[in-house]
Specification:
With about 400 residues, the chain is α/β, with parallel strands linked by helices. It has three domains: about 80 residues, no CATH class; about 210 residues, Rossmann fold; about 90 residues, Rossmann fold. Strands 4-5-13-10-11-12 form a six-stranded mixed sheet, sandwiched between helices. Strands 8-7-6-9 form a four-stranded parallel sheet. Helix 4 links the parallel strand 6 and strand 7. Helix 4 packs parallel to helix 5 and helix 8 crosses helix 9. The chain is globular. The N terminus is likely disordered.
């Protein structure tokens, strides 16, 4: 009887996750799904979660999703958390895509925007951290840390608090003061580091080497990308009864969103839910564009950007980790890349607000600012449906202050 009761409890609390393991696409190492690990123990590259998509297709799990709440956990069979009670949530996911008013600079282009500025911590980073924190705690992590340009730190601080797990955030010393202040409100320890996120990462890994803390950095653990891939699921969910976007314009810093969406599209294709992928278009700043430069040069990975600078801190990533996977996502979807100067960000933030009623951070406005350049270059064309991804709210940003900073 005890065994029967235990099985009944398991059935009630299991998420139904079809997670099968972890794999490294660089050296083909595979690992068991129940192992708490960061990067590949063989070659040091990114590990990715794998799922039984054939079983998902047989079970027709996609048909279950519309019956559930509009959070990212509606896709729980294709997420890594095994037990419902281990889910750490603030109601993240489920942001809608909205049709924008006609953009005069893009005649004949149907422009949509997906607004992750509406997420619990004000940015798309909540997706990755919700899943990654849930899985890390489920696997026994007792403290967490991350180097961040701002939004990832806010998200980890919030979800760490929700999980009752200690958190340390390493921020570049030029980070706007609101970010460390809010991180501390959530109870996180904040460490200020001179330089960019690259130096913050180096400092974090040096200090945490023997601390027992688990590294939650972009693509240095397997599960943040699982949260980010729900962006792709939600886009297909939104447009499945009409017409998928021809292209997705995405502001790129660490690049996890591009990798995640591409992973989602691959999984959906294997489940028979998607035939043709939208083109993924990376937008970076003139002062820090390692991904776009590598795309244009035909290089297999990025070279660190010399003298990186931009007023958009989330895009100040001079050497994104696992850049091979970022470039793969863009190239395999027949995508492209473009850069914009800092001086165009304040106007883009204002236009999104005044013309479309959208609050966007400098990072979130970068994709919108790039649209005329992409149209002029033929990367998007008249007659197409284009989705711009707003990655963060403008609530913490004063457009006038950004304009003055650009002027300096």
């Amino acid at each position: 009887m005890k065994i029967v009761a235990a099985l009944a409890v398991l059935r009630m609390t299991a998420t139904g996750s079809l997670l099968t393991g972890l794999e490294c696409r660089k050296c083909c190492t595979t690992l068991a799904a129940d192992r708490r690990v960061g990067t590949c123990p063989t070659c040091g590259h990114t590990l990715f979660a794998t799922y039984d998509t054939e079983r998902a297709r047989e079970l027709r799990v996609w048909e279950r999703f519309p019956e559930r709440d509009r959070t990212l956990w509606r896709y729980r069979e294709l997420l890594p958390v095994q037990r419902e009670e281990r889910i750490v949530t603030l109601g993240e996911g489920g942001t809608d895509a909205i049709r924008l008013a006609d953009v005069p600079e893009l005649p004949g282009v149907e422009v949509w925007l997906k607004d992750d500025g509406q997420m619990p911590t004000g940015s798309f980073k909540a997706r990755g951290m919700a899943v990654a924190v849930s899985r890390a705690v489920e696997l026994g992590a007792t403290s967490l840390y991350v180097p961040s340009a701002g939004n990832a730190g806010l998200a980890l601080a919030a979800y760490g608090a929700r999980a009752e797990c200690p958190v340390r955030i390493y921020l570049p010393e030029e980070t706007p003061p609101e970010i460390p202040r809010i991180c501390r409100i959530y109870g996180a320890e904040v460490v200020s580091v001179p330089g960019t996120i690259r130096e913050a990462g180096e400092a974090a890994r040096a200090r945490e080497r023997n601390s027992g803390g688990f590294d939650m950095s972009t693509l240095r653990e397997p599960y943040r990308v699982e949260g980010k891939k729900t962006m792709g699921y939600e886009i297909v969910d939104r447009f499945q009864d009409s017409r998928m976007p021809d292209a997705i314009v995405y502001p790129t810093g660490g690049g996890t969103g591009l990798v995640g969406m591409y992973k989602a599209f691959q999984e959906l294709q294997r489940m028979g839910r998607l035939e043709q992928f939208p083109r993924l278009i990376s937008v970076q700043m003139d002062g820090c564009a390692p991904v776009v430069r590598a795309l244009h040069a035909g290089e297999p990975s990025v070279r660190p950007w010399e003298d990186p600078h931009t007023v958009a801190p989330g895009l100040l990533v001079p050497a994104p980790f696992a850049s091979e996977r970022i470039l793969e996502a863009i190239r395999e979807t027949r995508g492209s890349g473009a850069t914009v100067p800092d001086r165009e960000l304040p106007d883009a933030m204002e236009r999104l607000g005044h013309r479309h009623g959208v609050s966007a951070s400098p990072e979130g406005a970068a994709g919108y600012a790039a649209l005329p350049r992409l149209f002029a270059a033929g990367a998007i064309r008249s007659g197409e449906r284009v989705l711009v991804y707003n990655t963060g709210s403008g609530a913490l940003w004063d457009v006038g202050a950004v304009r003055r900073q650009v002027g300096r």
